[in-house]
Amino acid sequence: MKTIAHLSDLHFGRTETKVVAALLSDLERHRPDLVIISGDLTQRARSHQFAEARAFLSHIPAPVLVVPGNHDLYPLYRPFSRIFRPRNKFHRSLPGHDSLPVWKDDQVVAIGLDSTRSLRWKSGALKGAHLDHLELTLADAPETAARVVFLHHPPSTASGGHPYETLVNHGIDLVLTGHVHHAHVELISSDHGGSLVLVQATTACSTRLREDSNGYCLVRLDGDHMEVAIQGWSGDIFHTIRHHCFEKKARIWRMAPHLSHVFPS
Ligand SMILES: [Fe+2]
Ligand SMILES: [Fe+2]
Fold first, then answer.
1. Which residues contact 1 (CB under 8 A, 6 or more apart)?
2. pLDDT at 82
3. What is the distance between the terminal CA atoms of the chain, rounded to a whole angstrom?
4. 241 lies in which domain range?
5. How many domains does the chain have?
6. Ligand 1 centre distance from Cα of residue 215 (Å)
7. 68 alpha carbon to ligand 2 midpoint, in Å?
8. Under 8 Å between Cβ of 202 and 192
9. Residue 261 domain flag
10. CA 60 to centroid of ligand 1, rounded, Å
């Protein structure tokens, strides 16, 4: 079994110290095998905000994969940097974090896609280059491994087709996104058979709250079983707000009752 912690929209520069500390404690308690952060690590891509993000990452007790969010690019009021080297500070400030992050083992292949665009604040396009990278990475992926894609923006378009149809056609099991600061889990079925699970995390520790409190997701994968636990901030600790369970039969994910025989609480 593999446990992935999915965090998003940390927004260092607009965080609550108490929430950040509790978030690290909860990660320490659940001991995930892998932590995936789907962008917006900073509020305005300032050096001190990246320094806070770097310190946070250094305390996470697991390997960490990150992709940038729109807030991690040079801001629009710095047009030269924004157009010609938008991700420079992100990569310079987070050394060791690849621009095309990939995790590959017998149980999980996780592929990070950079959905940010230098001239647009909001975007969710899966471009041809993303799909080429996906195909290349999946070409030698173990058959048994769950296929996970993570990106900042929930995908809204794709080169040559519907974004989720395209991802299902690539055999993707799970898509992890952020950006909208709202926790949401959905089973998405393709018109041509096949399905995937979309997990959108709210903001993990920032004060930029919309309708949700702070939170993150724990995804447990065990062969053809998946459990998504939404961890929410109570005001003192992170605790499990709800579970979503899924089973894969004949290559199609379906909702399942609580899988206590697979994922004991
Ligand atoms: Fe955000
Ligand atoms: Fe964002």
1. 107, 220, 221, 222, 262, 263
2. 66
3. 14
4. 2-256
5. 1
6. 13
7. 9
8. no
9. no
10. 20
Query: What are 188-212's pLDDT values in tens digits?
Result: 999 888 999 999 999 999 998 988 9
| φ, ψ of residue 138 in degrees (nearest 5) | -80, -15
CA–CA distance, 265 with 261 (Å, rounded to integer)? 10
Ligand index nearest the alpha carbon of residue 181 = 1
Query: What is the C-alpha separation between 142 and 108, in angstroms, rounded?
Result: 9
Ligand with an atom nearest the CA of residue 154 = 2
pLDDT in tens, 60-96: 999 999 999 999 997 777 777 767 777 889 999 998 8
In CATH, what number is assigned to the domain containing residue 159?
A: 3.60.21.10
Residue 21 Cα to ligand 2 middle (Å): 22
263 located within any domain: no
Spatial distance between the Cα atoms of 4 and 62, rounded to a whole number of angstroms: 10
Is 30 within the bounds of a domain?
yes
Ligand nearest to the CA of 210: 1
264 within a domain of the structure (yes/no): no
Question: Which pLDDT value is given to residue 224?
Answer: 95
CA dist list (Å): 76 to 68, 73, 107: 16, 9, 40
**Res 57 pLDDT > 90:** yes
